[in-house]
Write a structure and sequence with these properties.
Chain lengths: 209, 209
């Protein structure tokens, strides 16, 4: 099972590294972090550097590709080399996936046209720009194209992928291994659960003109 | 707010990178990944390389230190340089924290003696070796020493820390920003929720002789 996770400057770390923790433990997984060039990639906070072990042109056939989101997505949506690579690998994937605004990158590559898809709650309408139908959901499946909601939702999607790939019991075992029995101190992770002033504050921070 | 997250060979990535995603967004946060030497650190799967931007001897006063777990913890518990660094920074921290078996490293440094603490469910009894009182819980607070359960529990602890440091509203805003409204496809993240054969399988994989 060849898995590629795309990295790019100003991505959001957890978008990629939540799913990594699950997908890298699938039976026979060969997971590689890829970027336009090998080497260090800095996330949106600049505090985290992750290594891309392969350049895009070193990776031409994968079973699963995952595209994270983050403020850097806007630049990546204009990088022809990345969009062409995504279109090329998508032809042979079993799963083409994204987390958060990674779906906008899939959209820019033309891979979500006519499909149901999701993204971070504050960016949902942006999907229309690429001919996708925005759907609220922790993760949304349309055939082999799976898209997750904001940041942490990638962990849930990865467990769903694990079940599809290796069976329910295997996915449950992975969940137990990472002790994913969430109990956040607040119940404020979705806009319908949050006070309006916080929803507006986050929307203001995250949406670009 | 100076924050240091320890990195070491064969650590579990999400232990560090879940909390990173929350803590790095605190007001005035200066978060650095530190290791015995600067440069690349490989996680337990070998598929992920994270950059340590500072060596231990470059970091001598932090407000918050976080120690992740992972199979490499056993070696770190015997690294005098790391244990001495932890003891030294602990003297001035506002919070000394761990995720998963990172608490065994804090224990080996002598920082959990007589304290209530937690770790990955499969390793809970190991805490006694260091004079700590094992407590089941998503995260456990004993004064300034906070310890989280396995891997993904660090996200919950980080939100608790965010509330303590920057107030409940700020923590809620961060939770909404990372859309942390968990909805895993299975409810199997804790041993009491999992079938016995899976509990034994995971225990066998994770416990060392």
């Amino acid at each position: 099972m060849k898995i590629a996770i795309l990295l790019y400057d100003e991505m959001t770390g957890l978008d990629a590294l939540g799913p990594y923790e699950v997908l890298s433990r699938l039976p026979g997984a060969e997971l590689r972090f890829v970027a336009e060039t090998r080497g260090e990639v800095r996330t949106d906070t600049r505090a985290l550097g992750i290594l891309a072990d392969a350049a895009l042109d070193e990776v031409d056939a994968v079973d699963l590709v995952l595209v994270p989101g983050g403020p850097g997505d806007a630049r990546v949506r204009e990088r022809r080399a990345v969009l062409e690579w995504l279109r090329a690998v998508d032809e042979a994937t079993r799963f083409t996936t994204s987390v958060c605004t990674g779906s906008l990158i899939l959209g820019a590559a033309g891979l979500l046209e006519g499909r149901r898809a999701t993204t971070h709650w504050a960016q949902l309408d942006e999907l229309r720009r690429y001919g996708a139908e925005p759907v609220q959901g922790r993760y949304v499946r349309d055939g082999k194209h799976w898209t997750a909601a904001g940041v942490s939702a990638g962990i849930d999607m990865a467990l769903g992928l694990a079940a599809e790939i290796a069976g329910d019991d295997y996915a449950r075992m992975l969940q137990l291994g990472i002790e994913y029995d969430p109990a956040p101190p607040f119940d404020c992770g979705a806009p319908e659960k949050a006070p309006t002033h916080l929803v507006e504050l986050v929307r203001g921070t995250l949406t670009r003109s």
